[in-house]
From TrEMBL:
Protein name: Methyltransferase type 11 domain-containing protein
Record field: compositional bias (Basic and acidic residues): 13-23
Gene3D superfamilies documented for this protein: Vaccinia Virus protein VP39
Superkingdom per UniProt: Eukaryota
GO molecular function, one term: S-adenosylmethionine-dependent methyltransferase activity
Region (Disordered): 1-29
SUPFAM superfamilies from the UniProt entry: S-adenosyl-L-methionine-dependent methyltransferases
InterPro entries with a match to the protein in the record: Methyltransf_11, SAM-dependent_MTases_sf
Biased composition (Low complexity): 1-12
Species per Swiss-Prot/TrEMBL record: Ostreococcus tauri
Length: 300
């Protein structure tokens, strides 16, 4: 494993968000249509921070000590239960492109990527080099405290996907971090943020500590919304393919969630979300999806 030490980088200029795009490239023999959802605001550049989400007092932590000291001792544990981890893995399976390049931010000794799926490369970031060195899914990593320097050691448009699992609550400069995520994502790249109600309470920012699950979800959506060029963020709390909306089904889900760590995810894309033929069942009524028969008509 190759270890990359943290180094300051200069944030380059960002390209403007695209307003529409189509592609005729076939991936795994599936027709693809790119549906634009991002909106540019005035003359602001894509990837620029257009507003601050947190007030100064909302960025504060109960423990004001250095985060580097707090995370200096490796912790080879998982902070959420197996059911939560299984949901994270399933969400990655559905949203992260196969054979893509993945950046796992705020990672540790384990990433929750599907074992059966190969990725072109998996790069990691965290606060403890010993933990990251134990992570067998990483091809390399860098160590950095984003609350001191919110820069990502990568060139523009490097990754197809960025993940943050149960760590977004510790970011004191989330707007800058999410702008960096936008920068290193390729156009159409996805960012998946997952979290529960578990946390190091003294190290979470004030805006997060005592908020409800709904309020925390809205906060992460605002983090995405603070950066010009992300698609409208999508909140996910249930991954069932077929949701039973009967009284029994609702009670079953309520009981299951009350017994374990609640699952929350917020997902957004850089500029647009690529829609593949497998997703068309949700969009066919709007005529937004292409079929194999109509694919040839735009391939010129």
């Amino acid at each position: 494993m190759r270890v990359v030490h943290a180094a300051d980088v200069v944030a380059p200029a960002h390209e403007r968000a695209r307003t529409s795009e189509r592609t005729n490239k076939k991936r795994r023999s599936r027709a693809t249509k790119i549906i634009t959802r991002a909106v540019s605001f005035g003359d602001q550049r894509a990837g620029s921070v257009r507003r601050e989400v947190l007030r100064r007092e909302e960025r504060q932590k109960l423990d004001g000590g250095a985060d580097a000291d707090f995370y200096s001792q490796p912790r080879f544990v998982t902070h959420v239960d197996d059911d939560f981890i299984a949901r994270v893995t399933e969400l990655y399976r559905r949203r992260l492109p196969r054979n893509g390049s993945v950046l796992d931010l705020c990672s540790s000794w384990v990433s929750h990527l599907p074992r059966e799926i190969e990725y072109k490369k998996v790069w990691g970031h965290g606060m403890n080099a010993t933990e990251l060195g134990r992570n067998d899914r990483l091809d390399g990593f860098f160590v950095r405290d984003f609350n001191v320097n919110p820069k990502i050691d990568a060139k523009d448009e490097t990754f197809d996907a960025v993940t943050i699992c149960v760590s977004v609550q510790y970011l004191q400069r989330p707007e800058e971090v999410f702008a960096e995520i936008f920068r290193v994502l390729k156009p159409g790249g996805v960012c998946v943020v997952t979290f529960s109600n578990r946390l190091f309470y003294s190290k979470a920012v004030s805006a997060w500590r005592d908020a409800t699950g709904y309020a925390r979800t809205q906060l992460v959506k605002q983090y995405f919304g603070s950066v010009n060029g992300f698609t409208a963020p999508e909140a996910i709390t249930d991954l069932d393919d077929v949701v039973d909306d009967s009284l029994f089904g609702k009670l079953r889900r309520l009981f299951a969630r009350s017994q374990g760590d609640p699952f929350y995810a917020v997902v957004a894309y850089r500029n647009f979300r690529p829609i593949v033929a497998d997703d068309c069942t949700r969009l066919i009524e709007d005529g937004e999806c292409l079929t194999d028969s109509s694919f040839d008509s735009i391939s010129d």
